[in-house]
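Example: FeS cluster assembly protein SufB.
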Amino acid sequence: MIQLSLLSENNVHEILSKNESEPQWMMSSRKAILSKFSGLPNEVSPLYSKYSGLTVLEPNKVYFSNENTSSISKDLEMRLEEIRSSPSVLLIGSSVVHIFVPKALSKKGLIISTIQDAMKNNSELVKKYLLDNSINYEEDRFLALGSSAFQSGFFIYIPRNMMIEEPIRIVYSLKDDRTSSICRNIVIADEGSKGTIVQELYSSSTTFSSSSSSNPEVSKTNNEAKGNDAGDNRQESYFEVLECIVKPAAELEFITLQSMNSDTVCVVNRKAFVEKDAKMSWYSGMFGARLCRFKTDSVMKGSGARAEDVEIVFGTNNQSFDISSNLDHIGFSTRGKVLVKSIVKDAAKSLFKGMIKIRKDAQASESYLAGHAILLNKGAQADAIPGLEIETNEVKATHSASVSQIDEEQIFYLMCKGLDRESAKREIINGFVEPLSRKMGPFIRAWISYLFENKWTGKPLMLKGDEVMEQILEVEKSRYKETADIFEKHYKYR
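Written out as structure tokens, the predicted fold is:
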């Protein structure tokens, strides 16, 4: 094992699986990128450094292992049974538990594999797309870490003109020995293709808390299985870099449901490179982790490119959420929007950061960025830092942000209608989130509603196809998806 605090380009091979071999160009790339990691601060931008929650991360307590064996919990076994017949992947740490690609789709060219297998079997394809989209690894310390020291990850290639009706399911969990993991994931949607990917993120003890909440005997067995690790001083952490390449006229939806346990540090960098007349859609529900730091960059390279990022955050206890979403307009007549809403309770913290950049050749572009938070009690905190950088004229760019406490008059009104105080709060929160959730499809709304309900009532944060999920899904299918143009409220940038 090796600590994060000791990781460098000279010993990066120590965290890689002993059973895996890589092309020489990848190992050279690893070392070159990782050399930048140690020289960068946790927050590169001085504008954000004083707000950073990364002080929670303790690099000397974060350990990586090169062992690729792992046991699967009962909850994950049930989850596997529910997704087994769909295009799907289940990863635990750096171990591959399950990969399934339907034969009909495989014959048409769909590739779903680990990043290691992709570098072996599709090396030129991976190399080509990595080189086509040059990244400045000095813009973020953990972008450099995830792009160089990754131990596992997935690779998805949707071939030209393929329309995948069923979502591709990605389930990831950290190992039960409290070791940490670094993943690098790549998705390529080739020209004219269309697909949806659903990513679920869990920690090792997500399943233990699930069992302990309902069955003490199972909880005891699980704690015995963990052995001395139950009192271990390790800090369980998950680091990820995700790159989505959306080729001309393609459409890609990427849904993330983050349900890690309340001791985990989760740091994710996501980048989308959107080409001519293509569309990238991010939908996220952030519920778990002690610290959840998600940074999303949507780069609209080609003319007519579109990107949207819709996120719902629910923080309780001492959780901290650090959400960044940036829109980079490079091509002519591009359109981007970011909508983030946070609900913060107890002593939880929420930070939203966003930047709209409209480059000099991006005339006729439109962009909208909004971050809003609601505080459920006085101990909760929220901040929002939106920004604009405009290098040309004849564009529309708007940003907005707000932080407010829950309205006592609204609570009083609902209590007068027969609701208790807690139910009144929930109705107000539902009204706060509803304008955002209606922009999503019924399945996304159902999954987020299910996790939201579980967190509010203290139940395990894991998707299950139970009666509650079926009821929620039935309700959501009867609702509509909003199609109104969000840019109607724009002002003309001058």
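The chain has a mean pLDDT of 86.
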